[in-house]
Design a protein that fits this description.
The chain is α+β, with helices and mostly antiparallel strands and 252 residues long. It folds into 3 domains: 84 residues, Tetratricopeptide repeat domain (Serine Threonine Protein Phosphatase 5, Tetratricopeptide repeat), CATH 1.25.40; 74 residues; 60 residues, SH3 type barrels (Roll). Helix content is 58%, strand content 14%. The chain has 9 helices and 7 strands. α3 runs antiparallel to α4. The longest helix has 33 residues.
């Protein structure tokens, strides 16, 4: 039990480090520029905050909106994707991301996802890694309380109830910790990127001598599977793979 508590505390500490606080004054100025239609100034300030190391879903969302208003669709998609990574179930982020994607050239039909996997990811994405860590602490407290009730009670029915609910609360503790760890890994794993060049030729092997197999356009999302020198192997949503120069994309 001691190691369980330590694990939860470590999770809370590590996820708390990623929740940077954006300076209110600069953010308010950027928001005012956006309201006034000064999208260049708003995007510049939002980007300054991001480049300085501050980040959260709202900041990326606002930056994406500013870039979209400026007609920089690839930049907008990139920041909507970053916001979506932090808040995967936010309806506003999902809507704007899908709307920005509708302006891209490539129409890629994604491979189907098993409905149980999709449901599991949806449930896991309800809370952030930090949120699940706090939930696990709550259920750990419940578990300890039920353990005390079971230990000191002399009534058989109280012991049975406390034992039954104690087992259930342990399952909730474990599930919350697993969700917290997986959400943290999902956010920290940067294996997805957005194509930034207008047209990119995907080759069968790294290097200019590789055979041309298909092309991609600005704004398309890809997954990076390998890297060799200045070339990366990418996979698109329909499962097709190939190699492109690393400078043609930006990590989400």
């Amino acid at each position: 039990m001691r190691y369980l508590i330590i694990s939860i505390i470590i999770l809370l500490g590590s996820t708390g480090l990623s929740a940077r606080i954006v300076p209110d004054s600069l953010l308010n100025v950027a928001n005012n520029h956006y309201i006034e239609g000064k999208f260049d100034e708003a995007a510049e300030l939002y980007q300054t905050l991001v480049d300085s190391g501050y980040y959260n879903a709202e900041l990326y969302y606002n930056l994406g909106n500013s870039y979209f208003k400026l007609g920089k669709n690839a930049y907008a998609i990139l920041n909507f994707e970053r916001a979506h990574r932090l808040k995967p179930n936010n309806e506003d982020i999902e809507f704007n991301l899908e709307y920005a994607r509708s302006f891209t050239v490539d129409r890629i039909e994604p491979l189907p996802v098993f409905f149980l996997v999709k449901w599991y990811r949806s449930v896991r994405g309800i809370l952030s890694s930090n949120g699940w860590a706090w939930i696990s602490l709550f259920w750990l407290t419940v578990t300890l309380t039920l353990g005390l009730v079971f230990w000191f009670s002399f009534r058989p029915w109280v012991k049975r109830l406390s034992f039954t609910f104690g087992i259930m609360s342990i399952l909730f503790v474990v599930s919350s910790i697993v969700f917290s760890i997986q959400e943290k890994e999902r956010v920290m794993l940067r294996d997805e990127a957005i194509i930034f060049q207008p047209v990119v030729t995907v080759k069968s092997s790294p290097g200019d001598a590789g055979k041309e197999i298909f092309i991609l356009h600005s704004g398309t999302k890809v997954q990076i599977t390998k890297a060799i020198g200045q070339w990366v192997e990418i996979r698109i949503a329909d499962g097709n793979k190939g190699w492109i120069p690393s400078e043609t994309l930006e990590l989400i």
